[in-house]
Amino acid sequence: MIGILFPAGAAPKYLCTYYDIVDYLNISSHDKLHTYILPKKDLQEPVEVTMDFFLVAILSVVEKLQTVSFYFVLNLEWQNPFATWNPRDFCNISEIVLPMDTYWSPPIFFLERVNGQNPELNYVVLMHNGSFNSTRPYQVTLTCSLIILKFPFDTQMCNLSVASFLYPVTDFVMKTRRTPAEIMEDSRSFILTDGEWKFTNLSIVEFTAMMDDKGFSVVTYVISMERRPTLYVLNLILPTCALYLLDMAVLFGPSSLEEKINFQIAIILGSSMLAVILNNSLPTSSNKPPIIVVFFLGTFLLMIMAVLDTFFLLYQQRKSLRLDKVLRSFQQDPQELPKRPMGTLAKGGPQLLPPPKKAQGQGQLTKRLWQLQELDPFLPVLEKVLLFSHLFLSLIFFTVVSIKWSS
Fold first, then answer.
1. Which residues touch 151 (CB under 8 Å, ≥6 apart)?
2. Most CB within 10 Å of its CB: which of 229, 262, 309, 347?
3. In this structure, are residues 292 and 237 in contact, taking their beta carbons and an 8 Å threshold?
4. Which class for 329: exposed (0-12), middle (13-18), buried (19 or more C-beta within 10 A)?
């Protein structure tokens, strides 16, 4: 057996550890110069960063503040020709994990970001050929111009723009690695939430933003999401429709006009409570009022019109009753009433007793209504005209609102 002799006090050295690669790359002393310098050998060619995007969750959408919160993963790849080694010299070690601040990394930020948490995964994978790979999760809140015209049947499009304004396009360029269809397929498998919003589409826009006569590379991910309207339909739209149907039933019902007014006012108060709930969900400013606001306002006005119609009919009825009372007072002449002597029996035979008071009351009521119809024969016709015109106007309004929501 042949042994290998080493000098006294020396130990065998094998270049088979990550420490050896760190020493070879001269980063063991944490020289920050590697972090600050743009890794370029050819001054004519920019450093190209390819990125990949994975949407994980749509956390929240706040209509009042016009903000949306996303949780996503961003993967970046770039080349550094100053950080390479031959795997054969290090027992075929081809990659190593290093802290993010060991070498230069792309200084990117999100244009629409207003709040969020910085990623805690501050590591990068370095390949032997100088290829860097960084995968970091982000939870950010972005400003988004929410168009709520068709709330709650709306679809929103929010931009997530990745940019860097430190290096112009002559030194730094960002590119996307995959097509939007491929990103969509993977993102749907990554989606963790099944809440109010549904991720529907993704498009990518690469452009150069001009600033101070310099061009800077920007990549924008346009995220389309659709609202699930079931909760709003059950909590707002259906109760409002039910209250309006109840209002129409009261309007066409057989109750007296005084009772109709009491019921209609109570229904209007219930509809006002639903309007307060809606007001807490919608933003305070908008270029156009949402269709649901028009729906609530139109329904409220139709209920007010029903109350006014009932008041008008009640006024006409009271007016006819007063006229009937005046006419009856002119028709009766107290001097023509026969004066009979008080006595038990008359000479001509037995005296007729007056009819009971209840029968008198019923007869007077029947006669009074008959006389009222003769005095104002147009009152029932007026009532039917008002009711059916109100019904026709309601059908037109709800048809127009439905068409606008579905278009």
1. 63, 227, 232, 282, 290, 291, 292
2. 309
3. yes
4. exposed
CB contact at 8 A, 136 and 116: no
The pLDDT assigned to 285 comes to 59
Q: Residue 394 CB: number of other CB atoms within 10 A?
A: 19
What superfamily in CATH does domain 232-325+371-406 come from? Answer: Neurotransmitter-gated ion-channel transmembrane domain (1.20.58.390)
Q: Which two tokens stand for residue 224?
A: 């389309």
Which residue do the tokens 């805690």 mark? 120
Cβ 119 vs Cβ 136: under 8 Å: yes
Domain with CATH 1.20.58.390 in the chain: 232-325+371-406
- Its pTM stands at 0.75
Backbone angles phi, psi at 13, to 5 degrees: -115, 120
| Residue found under tokens 């396009």 | 169
Strands (E) across 107-177 are located at 109-110, 113-117, 123-127, 131-143, 155-163, 172-176
3-state helix, strand, coil split of the chain in percent (to 5) is 40, 25, 35
Q: What's the pLDDT at 317?
A: 77
CB 205 within 8 A of CB 162: no
Q: Which CATH class is domain 18-228?
A: mainly beta
Strand duo 95-99 + 113-117: pairing: unpaired
Ranges of CATH 2.70.170.10 domains, the chain: 18-228
